[in-house]
Amino acid sequence: MAEELPVSGEMPGTAVAGVLVACDGSDGSLWALDRAMSEAQAHGLPLAVLAVVDPSPAGYPPGMAELVQESVERLAASMADGLRRAVAAVQQARPQPYAGPLGLHVVLGNVIEVLLAASAGRHTLVVGTRGNGGFTRLLLGSVSTAAVHHAACPVLVVPAPPAK
What is the pLDDT of residues 131-155, one digit of tens each? Predict the structure, then answer.
């Protein structure tokens, strides 16, 4: 079995401008991850794979944050495991696996805010057209729309592959 990739709980650093890809485990994010690997390989850049977990979209009432800390930690650990599996699945499906520097990051916070902050200093931000949101009829999801309009670097939005 291959060595397990470490997952950082820190925002991906931008000391070296590389390719950043958002991955939430959805089909769209897996297609984006595959394309991000190709982009990073083509440009000889490192790849940062970022999953963002928003443990409380509406915020906690006073005193609740301490009570849910264990659940938040389990949620982050589960997302880290899912991120490792997503990278392994995409690598296995590629004709030539990505062999460059690869960092995996699971960060707690608002998805759009974290992703936009992480885009600073990047060569490219890669996102799928839609993630795990509930509005499948939309052409672009809220995250990809925000990235296109507000990211601090060029954004590559990866559509679904054509139906066969």
Answer: 544 444 445 578 888 999 999 999 9
**Measured in Å, how far apart are the chain's first and last C-alpha atoms?**
33
Size of the chain, expressed as the number of residues it contains = 164
pTM confidence score: 0.85
b vs e for 70-94, b when ≥16 Cβ sit within 10 Å of the residue's Cβ? eeeeebbeebbeebbebbeebbeee
What's the domain count of the chain?
A: 1
Dump pLDDT digits (tens) for 82-102. Answer: 999 999 999 999 999 999 999
In sign, the C-alpha dihedral spanning 83, 88, 89, 91 is positive
- For the chain, the farthest-separated pair of C-alpha atoms sits apart, in whole angstroms, at 52
Asked if residue 2 belongs to a domain, the reply is: no
Q: Please provide residue 96's backbone torsions phi and psi, each rounded to the nearest 5 degrees.
A: -130, 110
**Nearest one of 129, 145, 142 to 54, comparing CA atoms:** 142
CATH number for 24: 3.40.50.620
